[in-house]
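Quick illustration, no need to memorize.
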Amino acid sequence: MVFSSVSFLLFFLTPLLVFYFIVPARFRGLRNGILLLFSLAFYGFGGLSYLMILLVSVLVNYTCGRMVDAAKSKRWKQIAVALSVLFGLGAMGWFKYSGFFVETVNALGMSLPVPEVTLPIGISFFTFQGLSYVIDVYRGDAKCQKNPLYVALYIALFPQLVAGPIVRYQTVASEIEDRRETVSEFSDGLTRFLLGLSKKLLLANAMGEVADSVYAIQTASLSTATAWIGAVAYTMQIYFDFSAYSDMAIGLGRMFGFHFLENFNYPYIAMSVTDFWRRWHISLTTWFRDYLYIPLGGNRCRRWKHIRNLAVVWFLTGLWHGASWNFIVWGAWFFVLLMGEKFVWGGLLEQTPGPLRHLYTMLLVMISWVFFRAPDLSSAVDFLAVMFGQAGAGLVSGDSVYYLRQYLPEFVLCVVGACPIKIVLQRYLNRRKERIGYAVVQAAAPKALAMGLLGLSYMKLASGGFNPFIYFQF
């Protein structure tokens, strides 16, 4: 069930709001119970077997958290953490990587049967949330939760369950037990949700149609211009798709009194690859930083160990995204670029004019997304070869002209939407908030825009068609 669907909006969210808010706020336990039941139903919509995996994950992490809290010695605390890690990563390894591992071994000359395993939706996200809870209890960064239903609500809370953002327990611990839902918060959350919905339906889906069509063309029939159009389209699709989901998750959370941290900070205005990764999928990068990079020693060690630590992080970051050599190469690509910026050309880059730095960053990021989108490694290499001039169909073709004419408004809106225009307008209005009418515009304009976009989004939704979420596969 995706947020941008009629089934979610009418048959899930609407009854949830009715049942949830008909209960008085003082009955916090009952409201939490309703939210938990609907969250489990939301996940169970994809299959009861998936739901059982989620429930077992909740039970294991709750039990391990209690074991950490009750243990008298550090050794037993570490054993409890190890059990949580072994179960979480073991389950994720089996469901996500067993087939890839066997295929890789078979490529070396073996003939092992490839297991047919269906990947549970969002297993990477809820696994990392459960692990962070147990580790934070061990570190003393979070208090052990005695109520198993509250741990279940934290891990299974539907807005961020299947595609993030990855929420740390201490971020929402107090809000699970004691939060206040207000009309103002609900209104702001609904506005954020609707803006995310419009990004998904009006921009991400349009870019996805272009990207899918271009990547479906045989490279021998692909022109250089068409390949670049496909690369740009996918660059925009993955940003507006994933950031839209994060917007909707954050908005839904606020509607129910939860405050999730931001997951994106205009990554396509970055002036370096390092800057890009400070802005992109912030919850994942901070998770790897706090639970892997720093425990390995971070940068407070010898240079070779620092490089090793980053190599491990980026190998696992690539592998986290998918069981494919494409994703491993994608992670290695960013590792090399980040090492280059840190140790080789970073000083020169800082002295380079801003527009060239931005062009450099976006070019390297777009190349990375080719590895992310192509079905296999050889296809990615062939696609990149076409992008850089080795095109059997020449420089320009009828396809490239068609896509530009057909989707030019969406491309332009994507470029505009990737820029921090909202921040610029807010600063402008803040400087003039004492003038008559400016405060009203600042408060009412986002809501009016959201309602207007809702009408356009509903027309897209009613027409059906292309409407996947890229990060559901992780």
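The mean pLDDT is 92.
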